[in-house]
Amino acid sequence: MKIFIDTANIDEIRQANDWGILDGVTTNPSLVAKEKDKGKDFKAIVKEICEIVHGDISAEVVATKYEDILHEGRILAKIHKNVVVKVPLTPDGLKAVKTLKAEGIRTNVTLCFSANQALLAAKAGAYIISPFIGRLDDAGHDGIELVEEIREIYDNYEFETKILVASIRNPVHVKQAAMIGADIATIPFKVIEQLYRHPLTDAGLKQFLDDWAKLGQQIK
Length: 220
Ligand code: E4P
Description:
By secondary structure, the chain is α/β, with parallel strands linked by helices. Helix content is about 55%, strand content about 15%.
């Protein structure tokens, strides 16, 4: 399973990239709006991210009408070859996905909350589908169950659309996504940090170092 970071924060992206486990980045308008430098041009942010991480970088359109989605999608795709254009799961959005695919532009269909929506996105030719599991959990549904359903449907018909598990809230979501066979998980920085941690790792390391210190030796 590929690991993407779900942020528009350049410091977080640099740090996670340095850890050597990062395969890509997802952004959305809310994540961009959260950043301190609100005056910074969105295209410049996307370009900077593409220069740091050499993998798929999702950048979202804010248009909702077919022609306007195409217009914005073409602009975003020109920023860098690794840009994947994020498009909302609507009739206009999926129509744009089909046209953009014919032009060689890859899309990430976002705001997916049902298996049937994922089926339509695959038929339209989406490169990525993004089921939002945390938001489903928040609404009293089972987000991870949706990922299982999409995996089964895509495998039944050999759809090539990649399943990107989005709206991840905790390490359990990441493990469940990997066990189901999701292609990608996009994870907030804080949750990526949590993946490394285990109290027994910390306690075990402390014990090793304390015991070694008693020897008074160095590895030279
Ligand atoms: C990523 O592609 C999604 O936009 C993101 O994971 C949504 O996460 P949220 O539900 O925490 O806003």
